[in-house]
Design goal:
31% of the residues lie in helices and 36% in strands. By secondary structure, it is an alpha+beta fold. The chain has a five-stranded mixed beta sheet with strand order 3-1-2-4-5. A hairpin with an 8-residue loop joins strand 4 and strand 5.
Length: 118
């Protein structure tokens, strides 16, 4: 299967278990991998036959507007399901990096969802 990757897109979302942590948006890095067969897109050089990664990036930049999550696990699952539903990916992998532990470079979760695993 063919894959489009948006690597480490910087977003600012309200996320965290304590209310105080969710009060202000936090910097997160999102890596989103979306699988789809690109044969028709390549044959016709047609954007409509693939995943518009610019549109996905715009959707992700606004995904947190007016929302909050306690767990980055929940956020990752919701993003994976969104790329399947809204952008025609057949499989999606999402990694969310959070910078909350001072002694660690980051904490991350990674999820994978496909049409058969929804």
């Amino acid at each position: 299967m063919d894959t489009i990757i948006i690597n480490e897109l910087e977003v600012w979302y309200h996320v965290g278990v304590p209310d105080a942590e969710r009060a202000q948006p936090q910097r997160l890095l999102l890596t989103v991998e979306m699988e789809r067969d690109f044969a028709a897109a390549a044959a016709g050089d047609d954007l409509r036959e693939t995943i518009d990664y610019y549109a996905v990036s715009r959707r992700l930049l606004g995904f947190g507007a007016g929302r909050s999550w306690k767990l980055i696990e929940t956020l990752a699952v919701e993003i994976a399901e969104m790329v399947l539903k809204e952008f025609g990916a057949t499989r999606g992998r999402v990694e969310v990096k959070k910078f909350i532990i001072p002694e660690a470079r980051y904490v991350a979760v990674r999820v994978e969802r496909g049409l058969a695993t929804r």
